[in-house]
Amino acid sequence: RQSSEEGVRWQMQIQEDRINEEIMREREEEIRNIHKGMHTVNEIYKDLAHLVDNQQEGVDQIENQMENAKDNTASGLKHIEKANEASSSQCVIS
């Protein structure tokens, strides 16, 4: 009787070991999937940073062009005001 109980315990231990091995395999697979996901997220962030850098150059150019347009507009307004003053002073009423 003792040997049959020992056999049952041995079989239960083997079954428990198999279950634990399967659990460990599943965990390892989950860890690999998490690692893959983290790698993917990292690549997305790198791509996003690259896009932002590329767009920043365009934004800087637009900013410079807007500043130049503002300066040119101010200069043009001064020329128009001078021309208006000159034409007003030259007007002769007969």
Question: What do you see in this structure?
Answer:
- This protein is mainly alpha-helical and 94 residues long.
- It contains 1 helix and no strands.
- It has one helix at residues 2-89.
- The longest helix has 88 residues, at 2-89.
- It is rod-shaped and about 130 Å long.
- The termini are far apart.
Topology, element by element:
Layout: H1 2-89
- Strand fraction equals under 5%
Strand-and-helix sequence, N→C? H
Counted beta strands: 0
Quote the distance from N terminus to C terminus.
140 Å
Main β-sheet, in a few words? none
Oligomer: single chain
* Helix residue percentage: over 70%
Taking all Cα atoms into account, the compactness measure Rg is: 40 Å
The shape is: rod-shaped
Overall pLDDT, averaged?
A: 91
Low-pLDDT sequence parts: none
Structural class label = mainly alpha
Number of helices: 1
